[in-house]
Specification:
The protein has 2 domains: about 240 residues, NAD(P)-binding Rossmann-like Domain (Rossmann fold, 3-Layer(aba) Sandwich); about 45 residues, no CATH class. Helix content is about 45%, strand content about 10%. The radius of gyration is 20 Å and the shape is globular. It is an alpha/beta fold. It has a 7-stranded parallel sheet with strand order 3-2-1-4-5-6-9, with helices on both faces. β1, α2 and β2 form a beta-alpha-beta unit. α2 packs across α7, α3 runs parallel beside α4 and α4 runs parallel beside α5.
Length: about 290
């Protein structure tokens, strides 16, 4: 456990005796969160569709599959002694797509994992959460309110996830707490697909650390009354407030940034960016031929 993280944990209430399920538990956020929760005394079971790291603490589960979710979530709760206090969602994908094109398999996957997967798992866990007056922590993104090019599937799914969180809070908030966490740009494998397509978001917004998101989610799990919406950093908090208060200004800023990116050649000759360059009248030099 890093020293800085250990010092941060001193301000949190202990989670001794609490139980938690963490989705995306083999990923950067999920794996670290499992470790921190255990450090605080919680009993934790992770779920992840990856099978290379499964074992006693991470159960294999594809959250886009109804049958798997219905089977695995009760098993996870049973391993936790039949009770569930916290459900923390991290599982997500971030494909690069052209928002003007018809939804393809990548778009469907983003909606299935980022939105419906969280919905599906929460529904399966709801009886146990109700019994414990538990808490659901959903990881959205600042992109839910700040669109960036070629992240449309991710942006749409995360904005829909925030609507799901708000509706869940309205209907179940008397018995189950709901907090939404809004990370900014964090360099994790979720960006591999955009890098492969030549439209990575590196450098477009200030980078955050994995630790920022993890500690925000852990605080939401540990404190008595967390806020309904939590950004991972002070800058993220400012962005979240700005985009909600001035959506029209946000639209204009996003459009201006996209135009600048098109004319600066940020996306090179990436095929997915061809239409964007044409719409902005941008001339992009072709990449040199390779031998």
């Amino acid at each position: 456990m890093p020293d800085a993280t250990s010092r941060s944990l001193k301000t949190l209430r202990t989670l001794d005796g609490r139980t938690a399920i963490v989705t995306g538990a083999s990923g950067a956020f999920g794996g670290a969160t499992v470790q921190v929760l255990r450090h605080l005394g919680a009993r934790v079971v992770g779920i992840d569709r990856k099978t290379d790291t499964v074992g006693d603490t991470v159960l294999a589960c594809d959250i886009t599959d109804d049958d798997q979710v219905r089977a695995v979530i009760p098993e996870a709760i049973e391993r936790l002694g039949g009770r569930l206090d916290r459900l923390i969602h991290y599982a997500g994908v971030g494909p690069a797509v052209d928002i003007g094109a018809a939804p393809d398999s990548h778009v469907h996957e983003a909606l299935e994992v980022n939105l419906l997967g969280a919905w599906r798992v929460t529904a399966a866990a709801m009886p146990a959460l109700l019994r414990q007056r538990g808490r659901v922590i959903l990881t959205a993104s600042l992109l839910a309110g700040l669109p960036l090019p070629f992240a449309g599937a991710y942006t749409v799914s995360k904005r829909a996830l925030t609507a799901y969180a708000d509706t869940l809070r309205a209907e179940y908030g008397t018995h189950v707490g709901v907090t939404t966490v809004y990370p900014g740009y964090v360099d994790t494998p979720i960006h591999d697909s955009s890098r492969a397509a030549g439209v990575c978001l590196d450098g477009l917004v200030p980078a955050e650390r994995v630790r920022d998101t993890v500690m925000t989610a852990v605080r939401a799990a540990a404190v008595a009354r967390p806020r309904r919406d939590l950004a991972s950093t002070d800058f993220g908090t400012a962005v979240l407030r700005f985009t909600r208060r001035w959506p029209g200004v946000t639209d204009r800023l996003a459009a201006a940034q996209i135009a600048d990116l098109a004319h600066s050649g940020h996306f090179g000759d990436a095929e997915i960016a061809r239409g964007l360059h044409e719409r902005h009248g941008a001339t992009v030099a072709a990449a040199p031929a390779t031998t």
